[in-house]
Amino acid sequence: MPLSQAIINVTNLRLRTFIGFNQDEREKQQDVVINIEIHYPADRSFQTDDVADALNYKIITKKVIQHVEEGRFLLLEKLVADVLDICREHPSVTLARVTIDKPHALRFADSVSLSLEYQA
């Protein structure tokens, strides 16, 4: 039986952090919006219906929240890479994508975003 890939999506996780290199960005927190997609083989979890056989997205999300809210980042690239590293820590992750939006970063744009992807 082929592996069934489960896809976990965490959509629009809204957090505040220090992000940017301008003086005002370094002094006050800004909003960021995080979207995460994680793929992992789910055959065992849907056969056993046991939480121990599933990828626990709550644990991942808590780590992301703590890292983002307690961190200070000059570049969006660093923040996205850090969140991607957290998402791919579990050995069963086969693919992870992270996009982080920085709302109101540009005067005439709703948001600026950056995405990174990991594939095993």
TrEMBL record:
GO terms for cellular component: cytosol. Residues 8-118 form the Dihydroneopterin aldolase/epimerase domain. Transmembrane segments: none annotated. GO terms for molecular function: dihydroneopterin aldolase activity; dihydroneopterin triphosphate 2'-epimerase activity. It holds the Pfam family FolB. Its EC number is 5.1.99.7. It catalyses: 7,8-dihydroneopterin 3'-triphosphate = 7,8-dihydromonapterin 3'-triphosphate. One of its GO terms (biological process) is folic acid-containing compound metabolic process. Keywords: Isomerase. The keyword Calcium does not apply. Gene3D superfamilies: 3.30.1130.10. InterPro entries: Dihydroneopterin_aldolase, FolB_dom, GTP-CH-I_C/QueF. Signal peptide: none annotated. It comes from the Bacteria. Belongs to the DHNA family. This is Dihydroneopterin triphosphate 2'-epimerase.
